[in-house]
């Protein structure tokens, strides 16, 4: 019995081994085509799985082919799009460049329009008599702009100051000579000399029917404009008089004795003395002997502005004789200044021109040069600046551009009339310019 069982077991194992080997051989010969050709019963649970696999395989292959074609097409389209965008950007750049050129031209036109408007404002604000300057050419536009059209050698020494009697074209010059000289600007000929001072003339001015002169001899004289005779002598300063300004019946003088005095032109009396030494924060001994000590001075009614060797600009109330504001910003002596209802413009030995807001006391703008500023005047359009790099400069207040004008010698003083400027130089020469 036991022997029988062993024979049955051996036969079973051999048969299983043969079946497995045959099954393996047949499986090795089966591929996907065989599977597709097999008759699979409809009710088998493997039918959806097999059919789904084959469908997905074909779809993926087809999709790969389609995707490759689409990507190539999209790449071509994107390349075309880049070219179109580049061309459009180029056209826009050209338009921007064209618009920038148009903008610059419009800006220039706007500046010219502003300048013309300011010119009209200046003319409307002038005294009607100043529009009839007989010594000036009738046609300004025919003259070379920013170039001298007339030159007169008036003195062998440097000119300290000059002034013009505007309606009549009479020029007065001040130099180290003790005699101020009168000139006819229409002919360039000397009219006369005013004899009476004993030292250099520092400041001159026309005022109505008189001429006012100041000297290092510490005196001021009032001269008759018609017969050129001395009518009054004002004495009181103890050191050379640096600068004067007259208006109507008042005269203000600043001197190296560190005082500013207010005079009555009718009586010749000094009505007020303002002592700068009293208002120095830190008195400097080296400044006390400096001449000129008062470099700039201007007044309008009761408002007075002075600039001195201590580099400070002071705003005074002449009703009280007390400064109510100091403008601090320069580093060296103030050499000149001028003001209107909004601004004080000052020049200094430090080479700077400062434009101050008269209401806040702050510097709105500052122009830097390489040499001391000797004189300046301004209107709504321009600032005329003497001494700049030993010459002359014009600052356009609208375009904020600086133009330097050629000069053979340092401009020491200047006078601005309408669209004309008269300058005096260190070589004793006077020039007339169309500005």
From TrEMBL:
Pfam family, one: WD40
Keywords from the UniProt entry: Repeat, WD repeat
Organism, scientific name: Wallemia hederae
Ranges: WD repeats: 194-233, 234-273, 287-326, 327-366
GO cellular component, one term: transferase complex
Keyword Cell cycle: no
UniProt key word Isomerase: no
InterPro entries: WD40/YVTN_repeat-like_dom_sf, WD40_PAC1, WD40_repeat_CS, WD40_repeat_dom_sf, WD40_rpt
PROSITE patterns (alphabetical): WD_REPEATS_1 (PS00678), WD_REPEATS_2 (PS50082), WD_REPEATS_REGION (PS50294)
Superkingdom: Eukaryota
Annotated Gene3D superfamilies: YVTN repeat-like/Quinoprotein amine dehydrogenase (2.130.10.10)
Protein name per Swiss-Prot or TrEMBL: Uncharacterized protein
